[in-house]
Design goal:
Rossmann fold, 3-stranded antiparallel β-sheet, alpha/beta, 321 residues, 6-stranded mixed β-sheet
């Protein structure tokens, strides 16, 4: 918990001052009674009854004063709230290496399933887009809240071509910077980029990530696959037949992209880990940290204490104080 006006808390020194004043008043009352009456009559002039009940109302009033001062300091706490109208672009690598089966049943199928889980768990107000990138980036679905359209786009993810990560980031930024409605500002946005290899063609990925940072669009990267991943490809040079080629992921390159954009990077060696990454991203991208005022709660508590003190004083002594 924090306070919007912490200097007001200095007024809490009034509480111990009030306590000291009250104690002195009680001692003065006893001393005055002793001076006024003979010792034999002291019990009838200044009886000690009703004991603790005499002080209970004042304790309630002192606590009420302390709570009111805390309320005046405007207490607040940080909570996670859904981000309405936020936009997230799911950019998935669909290069030929995504056919590797080291992530069961294949890297691409696992990516599609995890993306579905992410979409289903995201708040309904979050706009989600789908992009496939291989030899060139293709926006399969602009950011939308229509889950059926997003599902259709995810089903269109199919392996083809190489890996142009920089071009994909640049295309995603252009799409996300487009307002969702005429005359409105672009919404808070982020890119989730899933890939299994280094980009060897097209725009420099780190440069594209830096441009994304300037646009305030962080890139969250996921390196999918294991070092043992392989695919079967035609032999080069027209030799005929096929050969097995290793396709390990490149987490270092993806980490550099995330760092340059102000995002985060993750690795996933199997489908379960990939789903876990999407779960974490869902909690980050679907919500934002906001400060909520607790002033009314504290003020209400102070009012309850004041009423309790007044009620005890009226019930036991027939007066408010």
């Amino acid at each position: 918990m924090s306070f919007a006006s912490p200097l007001v808390l200095a007024a809490l020194v009034l509480v111990p001052v009030l306590v000291v004043w009250y104690v002195r008043q009680q001692r003065h009352r006893r001393a005055a009674a002793s001076a006024f009456a003979a010792p034999a009559l002291l019990a009838s002039v200044a009886p000690r009854r009703p004991g603790w009940r005499r002080h209970a109302p004042m304790v309630a009033f002192a606590l009420a004063l302390a709570v009111l001062i805390v309320a005046a300091a405007r207490p607040q706490r940080t909570v996670a709230v859904p981000v309405e109208q936020a936009a997230v672009m799911l950019a998935t690598d669909v290069s030929g290496s995504m056919q590797a089966t080291d992530v069961k049943p294949s890297r691409l199928v696992a990516a599609r399933r995890a993306a579905r889980q992410f979409v289903s768990a995201a708040p309904r107000g979050v706009n989600i887009g789908v992009m496939a990138f291989g030899s060139r980036p293709r926006v399969l679905q602009s950011p939308t809240t229509q889950r059926e359209d997003i599902e259709t786009a995810l089903n269109r993810l199919a392996p083809r071509g190489g890996t142009r990560t920089g071009d994909a980031i640049a295309a995603a930024v252009r799409t996300l910077r487009t307002p969702l409605a005429p005359g409105r500002k672009p919404p808070p946005s982020a890119i989730v980029l899933l890939s299994d290899g280094a980009s060897k063609q097209g725009k420099d990925p780190v440069q594209a990530a830096q441009e994304a940072k300037r646009a305030r669009i962080p890139v969250y990267t996921i390196a999918l696959g294991t070092a043992t991943g392989t695919i079967e490809v035609p032999r080069p040079g027209g030799q005929g037949g096929t050969e097995v080629r290793r396709v390990p992921p490149d987490p270092q390159s993806l980490a550099e992209i995330a760092r340059a954009s102000g995002g985060q990077t993750f690795t996933a060696g199997n489908a379960k880990e990939l789903r876990s990454v999407y779960d974490r991203l869902g909690s980050q991208l679907g919500t934002a940290r906001r400060k909520r005022q607790l002033t009314s709660s504290f003020a209400g508590g102070a009012l309850v204490l004041l009423l309790a003190g007044a009620g005890m004083s009226l019930a036991w002594f027939g007066r408010l104080v």
